Structures are given as C-alpha cells and as structure tokens.
Amino acid sequence: MPWRKARQNSQNRNTMKNLSRRDWFRKSFTAAAGVVAGTSVFDQLLAAPVSRAEAVHQLRVPAGGKLVRLGSNENPYGPSAKARQAIVDAMGEFNRYSFEAVMEFRKTLAEKEGVTPDHILVVNGSSETLCLSGMVAKLEGGAVLSAFPTFRSLMEYAEKLNARWDRVDLDEYHVHNLEALAAAVKSDTRMLFVCNPNNPTGTVVEGARYRDFCLEMSKKTTVLADEAYLEFLEPREQRSMVELVRQGQNIIVSRTFSKVAGLAGLRIGYCVAPPDTIRKLQKFQMGPVINQAALAAAKVSLGDTAFAEMTRAKNNEALKYFLTYLDQKKWFHGASRANCVLFPAPKDGKTILAETEKRGFQIRVWDYQGKEWCRVSIGTLDEMKAFTKVFDEVVA
Ligand SMILES: Cc1ncc(COP(=O)(O)O)c(C=O)c1O
N or C: which end of the chain has fewer CB within 10 A? Predict the structure, then answer.
C-alpha cells in the first residue's frame, strides 16, 4: 500500500500554533450559534450556508454597487473570447434540442479521455453528477464518507436521502488524511467522495499517492473523484483518476467547465465512469438538459490551452500575493494550488461577512473544529490588492 508510506510534502510550516491565540473569538461564535437560523437572500444566491455565521447573515449589497465575488471560486477572466464567439456562432441552433450535439460532444470527450462514449455522461454542471451519484449509490440507509471540510453538495444531498455523512478531518496542513479516511470506510459506506485539489482549502494530494489510495478504496466502495480544480495545476501535474476508470475500477470522475474554462453560469460538466455506472446515472438525468450555448462554448474550451494557461498564470500571481499577505499576518493556511484559500477567521464570522460586504466584497465563512474560517476565492490581482486593504479595516 504505497500511499500509506509517503508523507505529504507540504510547503506550509505556518501551523495551527497560530490558532490558539485566536481562541478568543470562540465566545462570539457560541453567541452566534444561539441565534435562530433563517433563509436569507444570501442562502438563495449561494449554495447552502456552510456555517452558523452564514445562516444568520443577511446579504448587504452596497448601495448602487455590485459585490466583488470572492465567494464562489469562479474564474474572473472567463468566458474566453473563443467561447463567446462559439456561442454567437451556435445561435442558429438555439431553436433545436441538443440531442445530436450531446452525442457529438460525448464522442469528443471520449477521445480526449481515452475511453469509449459510453463511459461519458455530459451534465448540466458537475453539481448534477454529484446529485445523480447520490441517487444511484443506494445511499438510503447507508453512508457517504468524505474529508472535512470539502465541497459538501454530494454529502448534503445524501443526507436528504437519509444517508449518514461520515467526515474525517483534514490533517494539520489541511490536506486529505488518507490513512484516517481508509480507516473510516465501514461495511455500509456506499460512496467515498474525494476532491483533489480540495475546496475550500485548495490543497493537493500528490498524484501517485492519490492514485494508489483511490485504487485501493475503489475495491471497497464507489469512489467519486471530484476534479473541478485539477486544471489549476500545471499540465504535467494534472493526474486524472480517469486512468482508473480505463482499468474498469469502481470510480466516477467528475469534471466541470465552471472553473478554469470560466463557464460557471452556462452550467456544463461531464463525468467519466464504467458504462454500467453511466447507464445508472443516466436513468435519473432529466433530459435533454444541456443547452446549445453551453455545448458550443465547452467544445471550444477543450482545445483552448492558451486561455487555460492565462487563467493559471494570473491565478497563480494573485494567489501568491494573497498567501504572502496571510503569511505576513501569521495566519495559518494550507498550501493552496487552486483558486481558494481557507484561513482562521481573525474576528467573528458574522461581523466579517457583514463588514466585507458593506465594503463591496463577498467571501464565505466556514465552521470547522469548533472555530470559524474564512474562505476567500482568488480574483484578479487588483481585486486581491483591494480586498486585503478592506480586510485589514474589517479585522482591525
Ligand atoms: C469541488 C467542486 N465540485 C463541484 C462544484 C460544482 O460546480 P459546477 O456545478 O458549477 O460544475 C464545485 C463548485 O464550486 C466545486 O467546488
């Protein structure tokens, strides 16, 4: 079991020591927990709240202004010029359902991934893959296992299907703790959700070790490998778990055009899985769901390496700026390689949400290990420079 031996090489030595100094805000956290949670505009605009601070928070868009969105891990540079043009060119097809276009796109994706088209399902954003996977995993009465914190949609969906969500904390560097996850697989674990790079931390488990882990786990349960942020890594580092699907392992790989491709609002993604799994997923898909504009844009995005490179380079520059800011403050963070960073909230989360929004920025606040954490998405360099100024004011 080679994945057990090697230790994750983390660049981050600014460890949790810094946290104890901030325990003071636990008091206000506990106070916030006493407030009754309600559905706010914020809940409706974003995913479900990930903390008590978010549950009680009311969105405050500054008068006459728009919020700088550092809350949803979007691509501030998209859609690409090629994608925009492809949408215009495809307009003549907008009166038609997309049956043929979806079939064509499946073939294109199959070629790219080195599988047959029956290994591919095109979905209405990768959230649909997570939802469909929850349905077919026969979660009723079973359990879904994941690291925590991670992207929660599948597990929250599973809970709605009366499944148990077993969570395993990240390690001290905010990286998936593979040993603890392996030990947490039980006889009723119907699915293991793994996200690499991880949201909300942006941290990565290195390719070979991750692959060996997924392989071993896929013998015990269905593995859902979420690769939403894989393209933020350099191409030579992008080791997709599709290689395990090619070997016929029990694994579903989820990909999206919402992140590096910059098409979050168009809603398109795909998954790669063994054909019998794809057939099961398809049974629950409401079709035809994929819109012609999304198909046209996603198709050109596949070959648009220049746009992906530009996004990576600009994201890296802005990420580096922001991580340096956190280091200067001596605020712990994992070694993010994606477009988001998680760090301990220096003040109570509710105040942070309200005061950053008042100043025109939107971020997220998570609960983890009895503390509050800020998740900030990486925007443009200018946005990050403006944000750090504002954040200094907010936490002063
Ligand atoms: C890890 C991960 N998976 C899936 C999604 C859903 O993305 P979409 O439905 O836009 O493809 C997100 C969105 O932030 C995410 O962070």
Answer: C
